[in-house]
Amino acid sequence: MSSYPETSSEIGTASTTHQASSSSSSPSLLRSCLSRTCGCQIDPSEYLDYKFKYNKNGEAIIPDFTNDTTSASSSLPRIRNPGEHYIDSHNDQPFSFSFGTAEEKGIWMNSGDQAGSIMASLVWLLMTYSAVTVTLLTVTEGIPPILGMIYTFLCTMALASHAKTSLTDPGSVPRAAVPMEEQRRESPSHSMCGQCQTFKPLMSHHCRICNRCVSRMDHHCPWMNNCVGAANLKHFILFLIYTWTCAAYSLVLFGWNYFFCADEDCTFHVLVIHLVRAMTFLCIGAFLFTSSMLMNVTYGLMTGIGTIDRLKKKATNTMSQSDEEPIPLKDVFGIGGYHTWLLPVDPVFDDYDRVMGYSMPQRLLREQQFMEQASLKAQMEGGAGTVEMT
Predict the structure, then answer these.
(1) Are 201 and 211 within 8 A, CB to CB?
(2) Do residues 328 and 370 share a domain?
(3) Residue 19's pLDDT is what?
């Protein structure tokens, strides 16, 4: 196992949405916040603090680290052992309070697809309808209150996951993206996107609706009004799981009442029974659709082939030639505790650059020097071992 750290994004980049801008927050405040939230013990002498400037669009002007040695206010830290991390104070997120999918927009939202906006709103309407129907069953004493509370909780989690999937950047590739040092050493040439005119990581695709290249893009989902990629796949899976659970829960509840309950106390109110009938058809459709999508996502995780790539391989009859590796669950749900897997919160990846398939100039330079130092250290240790044997 290599001794250099995976990337600075293990803590810093994966939580950039929670960081204050480096131009307005003090390093001591950031260090104290990180120390309290993740329990990290940070050595102030090894704290990386870069002096970035920003243009009028809020985009960072990346300094030339190769020629300008004054761009960094601190030198490179020591080589980390496996499991150790360093903190990156650079916040590469835009500062403007605006909605859109462009790189300079502050909040990710696809507003250019009217059909997708309608379908995403329809999801909220139908889920709200089902929650109101079950609440009315509880009020009219058609079902016990605890059963109604459980269904309302499941609906809330499904809608929260839907909101996170729709409003989370799916893994768009920034214009300043560059290949990782490992990729650069393995191949002298790399793919470029003809639309974005930027580096195109492996398994990424250009979405014509979002007008961005998305890392490990599975597909563009109109029900989410967003792409499903490396950064929001967890939220999409949670939405499918909670929606499937809501549909199965309702069908079992209605089926038990219809087939096994002969007591008048559990008969539905005459005003609510029509709502229940319509909800039954809705739950059957939702159950079948989410079951199909869950099997599709599971197949993609087990084979490492997304929906778009799978359709392309089937069209060219090259599925048997696939050499993709299965996607580890930590690259979907993060390295946080298992209790975070069922919550619609952003995952923290152990190696953000590896998961996304690209790096940024300021991180790449450090990674190059880390790998060179690690390689030199390994050569020296190997030479010392040879001398001892002789």
Answers:
(1) no
(2) no
(3) 35
Partnered with residue 205 across adjacent β-strands are 214
- Determine the Cα–Cα distance for residues 356 and 359; give it in Å rounded to an integer: 8
SS (H, E, C) the chain: CCCCCCCHHHCCHHHHHHCCCCCCCCHHHHHHHHHHHHCCCCCHHHCECECCEECCCCCEECCCCCCCCCCECCCCCCCCCCCCCCCECCCCCCCCCCEECCCCCCEECCCCCHHHHHHHHHHHHHHHHHHHHHHHHHHCCCCCHHHHHHHHHHHHHHHHHHHHHHHCCCCECCCCCECCHHHHHHCCCCCECCCCCCECCCCCEEECCCCEEECCCCEEECCCCEEECCCCHHHHHHHHHHHHHHHHHHHHHHHHHHHCCCCHHHCCCCCCHHHHHHHHHHHHHHHHHHHHHHHHHHHHHHHCCCHHHHHHHHHCCCHHHCCCCCCCCHHHHCCCCHHHCCCCCCCCCCCHHHHHCCECHHHHHHHHHHHHHHHHHHHHHHHHHHHHHC
- Length in residues, the chain: 390
60, 19: one domain: yes
For residue 102, the model assigns a pLDDT of: 82
11 C-beta neighbours (distance < 10 Å), count: 21
Spatial distance between the Cα atoms of 113 and 95, rounded to a whole number of angstroms: 24
Q: How far is CA 108 from the centre of its chain?
A: 13
Q: In DSSP terms, which residues pair with 226 in a beta bridge?
A: 221
The yes-or-no verdict on residue 269 having pLDDT over 90 is: no
pLDDT in tens, 35-45: 665 555 555 55
Same domain, 210 and 136: yes
What confidence tens digit (pLDDT) does each residue in 230-266 have? 999 999 999 999 999 999 999 999 888 777 776 666 6
145 with 286, same domain: the answer is: yes
Domain presence at residue 144: yes
Give the pair of three-digit tokens for residue 236. 């999409």
Say if residue 77's pLDDT is above 60: no
* Residue 117 forms part of a structural domain: yes
